[in-house]
Structures are given as structure tokens and as C-alpha cells.
Design a protein that fits this description.
By secondary structure, the protein is an alpha+beta fold. Helix content is 34%, strand content 40%. The protein has a single domain (1-152), classed as Protein Transport Mog1p, Chain A, CATH 3.40.1000. Pfam families: DUF3242 (PF11586).
Length: 154
Amino acid sequence: MRRSLFLVVVLLMLSSCTLIKIVVPPEAYSLDTAIFVLETRDYRLSDVKEIDSYGDVEMKGKVAVFETEYGPVFLYVYKGEEAKKIWKKLNGRAGFVSIRSVLDLPNMGKFSTVSNGKKIVAWWRKNWLFIVEGKNGVEEFVKHVYRVYEEMKQ
């Protein structure tokens, strides 16, 4: 009985993982292209800069500032072989107590947390790593990013 219950739980967990989608742009896209395609009337791109790190984690990429109805939202983007490694460092730095949700699979990962009054959502897949942070509107902006990148696939 315990064995069959265990198998059912494992099957449910595996099937739920297939429902979880982590969307990234095509590999052919540059950092700039991945950022610029996100600008819409509701999410106005106001600045893009190169960065060497996110907090104390080395990450050569770009940060973009999007103006939204909720206030500014910051999008940090990295593309390279170290995406998973950097994401794991960020996940570890966030601390178990402050993490609201985490998904860590061999081919993708996502976590969300609140730190110093800012909401943070970070995800990686393939060679891409994204971090969105802001005081408000972060979840809505993440949904927008997913929607845009999902439309690109079609």
C-alpha cells in the first residue's frame, strides 16, 4: 500500500513538472533583441546597460528598465554557458527562509522571493538567465515576458 501511494505521488509530481513552462527566447537572439522585443505600450523600455554582476554574483549581461503602470521593473538578462551555475548561486544567496517558491530541474529552474521590499523572480533555461525585480508589478511583467517569448515560438 505504501509503495503504491509513493508511486502515485511520484507520478503526480512528474506530470505536474511537464505542465510548468519556463519560456526563453530562441538561441539565435542576442541580449539586446531579447530585451527590445518586450517593449509595448504597457511596458516602455527606458534604459539598457551592460552589467558585470547581479548583487555579488558575477554575471556579464544587461539590465533593462521598463516603466509600467506599477512603477519601474528591472530585467536582468544573461546568455551563456554559466546560466544554470549563476542561477544556483542566486538561489543560494536568496536563502531558504525568504524563498517563496522554487523549481529546480536538470534542464530549467525558477524561483521567486522578496528581499528588501523588492519582489524578485529568476529563471533559467538552456543558456538564458532572467531576473525580474521591482516593488510592484513583477508577476505581471514576468507573464508578459513569457507571453512574448511563447508567441515567438509559433
